[in-house]
Amino acid sequence: DLGLAGTVEGAGTYKYGERGTITATPKENFVFTGWYLDGHLLSTKQSLSFTAVKDANFPANFANAATVNMPGGSDCGYRIYVDSADSEALDSLLNSGRISLDDIRNLNADKAGSTFKVAKDSKVSFTVELKDGYEKGDDFAVKAGRTVLFANKDGKYSFTANTASTMVSISGVRKIEPTPAPKITYTETDTGITFTATGEGEV
């Protein structure tokens, strides 16, 4: 039901050759996924401009929204890069102004996480990049809800946003502890001075 999922402005009668623009706005808990013509996707932008040359019907497609919560924080030791999240729904979010390109495609962990919406049942893929001075511990884990995710050969983690809200969590990232400098001691003898280094560092 279009009335429940969203609204469309700009529909009506246009003169031949006249330029027009129609705009779709999703309601709460919905996302706009695209304009269609004869079953083919025309655009995922919320506003569609056209020149009237014949009668045309552009159905606006909306979908139930799913919220994705990504972790973050200045001291978390990693950054998250979301590289795909159902391109149609993702592009519509970008064009709606509700989320910026930096927020969705290059999530900065220094922003203490990010929350965005995608079409329900869409696939979300992302990579995890460790910051300098951090490493993965033996207990490193990436989860979507309670499901443990495993990276593919390209290092990407993926899940299907099939619930109203999915919380992504990352654990087991730890700060690399610096190796202590060796302790140098010396002993004077009749034949000279003997130096001794103790510790794990290099002399």
Biggest sheet layout = 7 strands, mixed
Measured as a percent range, the helix fraction is: under 10%
In terms of structural class, how would the helical and strand content be classed? mainly beta
Q: How much of the polypeptide forms β-strand, as a percent range?
A: over 45%
The low-confidence runs, each spanning 5 or more residues with pLDDT under 50, are 85-112
Coarse shape: elongated
Number of helices: 3
Count all strands and give the number.
Answer: 15
The helix/strand series, from N terminus to C terminus, equals: HEEEEEEEHHEEEEEEEE
Rounded radius of gyration (Å): 27 Å
- Average pLDDT rating: 79
Terminal Cα span: 74 Å
